[in-house]
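Exercise 4. Each item below gives a protein and its sequence. For each, produce the structure-token representation.

Item: 6-phospho-beta-glucosidase (Vibrio agarilyticus).
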Amino acid sequence: MIQFPKQFLWGGAIAANQVEGAFDQDGKGLSTSDMLPNGILSPHQTREERTPGIKDLAIDFYHRYPDDIALFDEMGFNCLRLSIAWSRIFPNGDELEPNEAGLAYYDRIFDELAKRNMQPFVTLSHYEMPYALVENYGGWGNRKLIEFFERYARTVFERYKDKVKLWLTFNEINMSLHAPFTGVGLLEQASKQEIYQAIHHQLVANAKAVRLCQSLVPNGKIGNMLLGALNYPYTCNPDDVIAAMHENNQWLFFGDVQTRGRYPGYMLRYFRENGIEIAMEPNDLAIIADASVDFISFSYYASGCASADPKQKEVGNIVDSVPNPYLEKSQWGWLIDPKGLRILLNFLHDRYQKPLFIVENGLGARDEINDQGEIVDDYRIQYLNDHLVQAHEAILDGVDLMGFTSWGPIDLVANSTAEMSKRYGFIYVDRHDDGNGTLERKRKKSFHWYQEVIKTQGGSLK
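Answer:
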């Protein structure tokens, strides 16, 4: 029988910009996410052009969090991954003093979680930053953002050091290569030079946050977070194997810097061959070298293939890859590959020799309410069951796995497309792509399934 370790953390993951709403309440400033009313696939707007979007209200977690947390508790969560909206704490990003109303809001959430013995697991920057930092400084292309992020990190570490022991720096930090406005506050037409320069500033800021957490939060742990975009060679042709190596290096670069504390040789070669010159201050590399993360966390939804033949590529959701003929696809065209999770867990553990945490995994699908008023989402149950079975196989392989937080334990606004119809949750939210709905919550069949998985420490998995 499958049994996960007793200390294993079970829960779900949400992001402030996809659940909270209340985009302009209690002193919150506009974020980059607020400027993307139709998701990250749409061009961003200026402050003057901004139109209302579905994320302005999202699922109103800002006001409904006690009831939602109660539902998470009913499922048996001992961990909830969530993010702090940076622009709730520093509305414009460059203030010297934080917004007390924003700090107090997260105090209330963490207190609610503590009442239910649920560990908060907090991401500092989850696909959003104060939009004023883009307007006034040019986003992460400006070194001054290192100082602003350090002030923000210090503020929340000092405020919540007794309430939050698990932290992450940047959500899916490698996504800046594919969606630079979302990741580093640069326009989508930014050059590789500009993007990698902004990424360097973010990596220095990451290192400073890691050291701050390790010094300020007693018994705290801080990790990085990667989009686990594992690519297989399309064939056994050595050229395809090398193509897969290059594709994987594009995202492993971030993990290498955040874990090993240096720029890897393959990336220095890439910079040389593409005419990229990173401007650094004398102490930057020493700061990075002194700040290895405590653990590696990652999202995993799908694998991909890489080919030396560019014609093989297929346009995907944000990330393009070569289709794998051995795998089925989800309704949104994502390849379903549970065994890829085991492969990735072993790969990352072998590479970094640090504890791992699966902080996002789930299936986005269109859910229907049947004539009995039920949502029978067996497809989601099958997807998560198969991935958790493979996660357990990785533990048997010797992988040190801290926990699993499914993406979207409650339906939320899709980040890429700002849809409600792409549902991930165990809990249905009555809100639709046109913004209509009562916001009523309803348990799906998967709610009771996940409840049993947690109760049995994985023993109910098949």
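Check: The radius of gyration is 21 Å.
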